[in-house]
Amino acid sequence: MSRRVWYLLGLEDATWPERALFAVTMAAMLALAVAGFRRPTQLSTVLNGAFDWVLRYFGWWFILLGFVLLVLVLGVTWSRYGRLRIGGPDAEPEFDTFSWLSMVFTVGFGASILIWGVGEPVSIVQQPPPEPWPVGGASAKSLALAFMFVHEVFPGLAMWYLPVALAFGIIVYTRGIGEYKVSTMLAGIMPAGDHPVVLWAVDVAAIIATIGGIATTLGFSSQTMAAILGGVFGLQSAWLTYGIFAAIGAVFLVDVWLGLRSGIRNAARATMLLIGVAMAVLVVVGPTLFTFQLGLDATGVWLNNVVRLMLYTDPTAAGHWAANWTGFWWAWWAAWSIFVGSFVARVSKGRTVREMFIVLVVAPGVLSWVQHTLIGGWVLAPDYVGPVGNALSANGIPAAIARALSITPYGSVLALLFVLVIAGYIITSLDSAVFMIAAITLGDEDPNPRNRACWGLLLAAFGVMSLELSSFEAIEALSPVLALPFTLFLLVIVYASYVAAREYARDRDDVAVSPGGLLSSRSSASDTDPEAGSGTDAAPTGDD
């Protein structure tokens, strides 16, 4: 290929392994997208079959892995390593707190709060866990909302994004090891020069898993947007939906050109404001009293039984209820973990590991808890749960959302806000996903806009292709099927990040105590360096 072609693809300075990474991944995913356009029914059948197989035989694995990752991440975060500052002790935060939180929240969730906030509680009320229930004495509605809290508030938020965020933050930024690639997170336990093919394959798997995760959300979002436009506004034309996607794509391309600071940050902040307005309107027009009462009751069920609900499998019962819910959620989180975790690390330079925990788990957890309480209470209210449940059984979650909006007072106003929020989620998710995919491809934390645009066009094609698939369930299959091969890597990078943190802390300790070192005394360091502390606990020693 000529240099001009490489330039148009943003690969003019890339190495041959990087160009091969781009070509192989792009070809594989384009082939899947073309199959979706040309043979949507057959692709739906294949994806649904793969989905059932993965969750039937590996749902338990996702549940176990999530628990293990939670324990490991909490251990690292609240140990002395939690004081490590991403980028080193002198790194300064690049973004203000609101922008930082906005990017993390809008990128980390996509439109799942709106979509599954309606779909999961109503589905569980219709088809609850087999008897005996994991929580005795709870109503079906409270149990359904409690499972929603487990899956999208806690522990879901702490299990999957943080391992990658910690690994990228500590290894790539704080230790400064290697290039900006997923395989770099193996530095220290697998030197790059010893296993180049294995490391290259890791990057391929990471990009494919990332595309699977983001494609799932784009598929959910596009079908939901089409259902709202048709069910609430009576706009049934598929071309209208395609036109809206074209407008979203134009905004996305502008954001790509503007980059991280002006593009993604501003789109995330605008989306956060839209979310706030939509939830405020829902409080006014929805069944407010029932919502607050159910939310409090479900919160009690959740907090009092979080470990039981998290590890619930019920192996003696017929069917695979837990695998189809918790297993699916953890697989989705796993597929998203690569790009969200690395993106969080990218925008968290200058913050400590514990600060990153707060902005990735605590603050979004509170926000998502409020939103799921409002949305769940809305669709589970006595006047809503029947019509919404009938629409869900007949035509899936997008139709259920449209039905809920159509029977709500001033539902057209709320529907318009939902469409705008979904559009904002699509833009921010696309922005951040292509930013990180291009960064992984090129090994550059600030990839050029031409390469990002190429990946953006691929992901947009998946969003449009999902409109052609014969069932909403086919979209669900992308995350668990593409994430399964990548799950073992998550355990490896947790260990690799611990090794890097230990070595970094040991090096700083050696500098602090050596004659003529950069830190002349522990007492003076503790006043300015959050990693230093005081006395003998200032930093880990070689015995840790």
From TrEMBL:
Ranges in a coiled coil: none
Domain of life: Archaea
Stretches the record annotates as Disordered: 513-544
GO molecular function, one term: transmembrane transporter activity
Cellular localisation: Cell membrane
Membrane topology designation: Multi-pass membrane protein
GO cellular component, as recorded: plasma membrane
Keywords: Cell membrane, Membrane, Transmembrane, Transmembrane helix, Transport
Primary localization: membrane
Segments crossing the lipid bilayer: 20-37, 57-78, 98-119, 158-176, 197-219, 239-260, 272-296, 327-345, 357-381, 413-442, 454-475, 481-501
Protein name: Choline-glycine betaine transporter
Organism classification: Archaea, Methanobacteriati, Methanobacteriota, Stenosarchaea group, Halobacteria
